[in-house]
Design a protein that fits this description.
Number of helices: 11
Largest sheet: 5 strands, mixed
Order of helices and strands: HHHHHHEHEEEEEEEEHEHEHEH
Amino acid sequence: MPIANDFFQTFYQTNLASNPWVLIGKLCEFLTGTKEIEDPYEYLTAGVDIEVLHSEIALALDNATSDDGGLERTWLSGAYTELIFIFISTLNIIASGPTSESHLSIAHTLDAEDVIITFNWDTLMEKALAEACDWSSAHGYGFKPVSIFRDEWVSTNKGDQVKQTKLLKLHGSANWLTGFPMYTKEGPVLGYGMKDESVFLYEKSCKPYATYKGRYMGGYEDFTYGYYPPNLIDVPGIEAPKDHIFVQGYQQMPWVPEGNGLSEGQPSIPLIIPPVHNKKYERYGSLFDSIWSQASAALSNCYEIIVIGYSFPPTDTRSLELFRDAFLKRATFPKITIIDPSPSRPLERFQRDLGIPLSHLRIHKGPFEGEKTFNKLDI
């Protein structure tokens, strides 16, 4: 999965880059205007870090808070949102294929008591869990979604909780959806009359669904969709402030073909914490506080922790705090296995920063090769 310097190189290798429905105009305007980049394509494919770029736009958007900054906010919020859609649609097109054997090997080792904690946004793990152990997204994420899209929106009000492997996604997920935000001088406001922590889940579609301007893109596997996710149907909107009205408009470029699909409902957007330096979990109410609390409880109570490919990057201070706070609640040290081609940093974190003795650490220096690696480690 491309997540840093190689992201845009990967994006431009997909058919998304040449699709006129894939919006990138405001991002290019940010590059040519604010950053004075002459050739956005050359700049993006030269190895720019998507986290750095997204953080620059996020900072500029946070600073556009004055009363006369409405046009600037609209422009910057467009660039910020375009990056989210480009990011998730690229992950979706990569994930839409045969089920990952590596993820299947993980899924086959798990039972209902196990917990997966991930910072990834892709849905490779969901697809493997569903295939290996009949995992249900309705009960598997640690929260109750409003509804799930399975060719249509299906309510989750009925049915008992099912005991199964829990998948805690600390930065959101490509298949989690929320209302399209409006950016005001006070900050972003989700465009529906529901609680900020409300989550809609996308699971699968075998037929066209209603989406933004009827721009349905098919041909994707379960848990993945084209550039535009399904619209939210029968969801209440928010009321305009006193003496104000909402006005909605579209800019139709002559070279962009019209969508010929359904378009009723409210446009949705992937619910993720984007790869930016200043991550705003509070934007979604209590959702991420609850997920992180469940992750802390799992780390506090488990017997064994297997860390696959997570290197504790210096910028992820909250993740280190998660482990530290969880371990402070423990009476005993957990057994920890690190699987990583370059295990020195996670090893240092566990020993120096978290106080785990070497006797409780096991290192597998090398890539994760699924069942082959598990057999070597007798997992």
